[in-house]
Amino acid sequence: MKIYLTMTAAAATLLTACSTQNDLAAMASGGYAFRPERIKIDPLQAVAHGHWDRPVGLEGDHLIIIDTQLQQAKYYIANQYVGSSTISSGKAGHGTPAGTFKILSKDEDHKSSTYGSVVDAQGNTLISDYTKGQPMPAGGIYKGAPMNYGMQITNSGIWMHEGYVTSAPESHGCIRLPGDMAKIFFDNTPVGTKVVIK
């Protein structure tokens, strides 16, 4: 199965209009407000946000390499490159940990236990951007942010999951993938898969 997920023409125009200087390191250190219109990446490297080409019958050890400087995840099976995805990793103050990990568990409909919103009994949003530990309004009910196609990487709350991706550091430490790529990674990744974050 071969899948190419391309950017919209508008996004390609935006990237072409930007400087070709790669400013991801500056973004990670807090040098930019993390907004899509502020992203500066080489348009020659930004031709697609995902690729998957796993040959039929290919089996073997799985490996995911997360590059937080390039904001990219690469996928290998039996030492053969089969796919990649753009990502958004941890922003300044919420860095994604570097090291060698493994997928501890998977949850297709995972919800955050720390970040989300507060709603009332009728489901009306009282606080849209809530972090556990902040004051809770009377009658408020915590609603965890969706982390669909979640794959747990650490016991301290770092997951790989579907989310808002700009190819810049945006998250609270998790690895966000675009929806289609998050599902592909989820469907093809067994628990125990090695994950290297650098």
Q: Could you please describe the fold and organization of this structure?
A:
The protein is mostly beta strands and 198 residues long. It has one domain (58-197): L,D-transpeptidase catalytic domain-like. It has 3 helices and 12 strands. It has helices at residues 9-17, 24-28, 179-188, and strands at residues 2-6, 48-53, 62-67, 72-77, 80-86, 99-102, 105-119, 125-131, 141-152, 159-162, 175-177, 194-197. The protein has a 7-stranded mixed beta sheet with strand order 1-2-5-4-3-12-6, covered by helices on one side. The protein has a 5-stranded mixed beta sheet with strand order 8-7-9-10-11, covered by helices on one side. The longest helix is centred in the last third of the chain and has 10 residues, at 179-188.
